[in-house]
User: What shape does this take?
Amino acid sequence: MPKLSKEKQFPIPILPEIFKQFLLDPTFYSCEIQLLQFDPREIARQLTLLESGMCRSIQNIELVDTAWMTKKNVIIGKQKRIKVESFNDPITGELIRKEEEIEDDIIKVESLTQFAPHVHEIIQHTNAMMKWIPTCILSGQDIDRQAEIVTYFLDVGQELLNLHNYQGIFEIGLGMTWDRQITNQTQMLKKLDRNHISKWNEIKEMTTLKGGGYKGIKDLSEKAESPYIPIIPEILKHLAKVDISGNIVDGLANIGKARSIWNIISRLRYSLTRPYNYAPVPQIQSFLRSLAERSCMGDTKAGQ
Assistant: This one.
């Protein structure tokens, strides 16, 4: 009887030939490789592995007492102003005006990332993805190219649905089907075939704010079996809502609040109790990170 291998058996990654040439090359990022050269299924897989890793990194302590919302005042400079005081002389009754030059601190409110570093990481990633997607689409030189990029993201979205990556669907939905920069391109959207128009409408319906917000995705995630990735911003919103109630009620510990927080965190933990059975390709994940980061820095060619 043959021995069973204990090594994980992953499907072979779907990689373009140009990418294979640079997998072991330290100068990989200097090569002219473009997003659309990758199979959309592999992009969805690697994005899912990337985001599931981010979710697993979040510690429970980061999710209580709205730790990710902790802020501080930072002095970033000084500004001068004239302070004017007017008063009547107690003896003569004459109005006296006094001017004094003083310096005020210029205050900037910043988030303290050290209390919830992994939560901040996925928040920044989410914002970067939602900015990168429309930037990538509009980087197309004409409406045909833009329609091709939209089609590509819809195919990525379909695979994200298959993988139960609802966080990724959230990013594509808000970054594309609800982004006015894209929805205003009516001539470009007419270039989509019937199949992709159907996918567009499906993702848009799932990410609508009607019915309590993203009801389509939330309904799917509530029924999903592990592994799946829930919408992290929605989890944070629910935790913040629960945290409004005090820790003490009528002199007693607020057990209801503690139970609600525990249920939310437990559901997040359950979502990734089982791993995704795909081989990570660190270069693709770094590629995705770099494209999103470049778009946030104003690089209009990110992902062309």
